[in-house]
């Protein structure tokens, strides 16, 4: 499921990636790397939700996201 999640992420299908990350976590709930990737995708989706609605909130969310993963 992790590989499928990464494929969906690369295709910019973030909702699909979340689905596969969730499935992977059902099998291994203690997989910290998978949980981290899932949370990053989820937070980026939150940014996209606010992008055209509230620019200041989008910037704040992106700043927080960058602090977690500056890559």
General form: globular
Radius of gyration computed on alpha carbons: 13 Å
The ordered string of helix (H) and strand (E) elements is HHHH
Question: Regions with pLDDT < 50 over 5+ consecutive residues?
Answer: none
> How many distinct helices?
4
* Percentage of residues assigned to helices: over 70%
What is the typical, i.e. mean, pLDDT? 94
User: What characterizes the major β-sheet?
Assistant: none
Which percent band covers the strand fraction? under 5%
Please report the total strand number as a whole number.
0
What separation lies between the terminal Cα atoms? 23 Å
- Helix and strand content put the structural class at mainly alpha
Would you spell out the secondary-structure blueprint of this structure?
Layout: H1 2-10, H2 14-27, H3 32-50, H4 55-68
Features:
71 residues, mainly alpha, 79% helix
Commentary on this structure:
The model has no long low-confidence stretch (mean pLDDT about 95). Helix 1 (about 1-10) packs antiparallel against helix 2 (about 15-25). Helices cover about 80% and strands about 0% of the residues. By secondary structure, it is an all-alpha fold.
Summarize the structure.
It is built from four helices and no strands. It has helices spanning 2-10, 14-27, 32-50, 55-68.
């Amino acid at each position: 499921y992790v590989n499928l999640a990464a494929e969906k992420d690369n295709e910019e299908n973030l909702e699909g990636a979340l689905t596969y990350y969730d499935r992977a976590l059902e099998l291994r709930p203690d997989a910290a790397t998978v949980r981290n990737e899932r949370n990053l995708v989820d937070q980026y989706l939150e940014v996209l939700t606010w992008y055209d609605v509230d620019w200041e909130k989008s910037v704040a969310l992106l700043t927080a996201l960058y602090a977690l993963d500056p890559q």
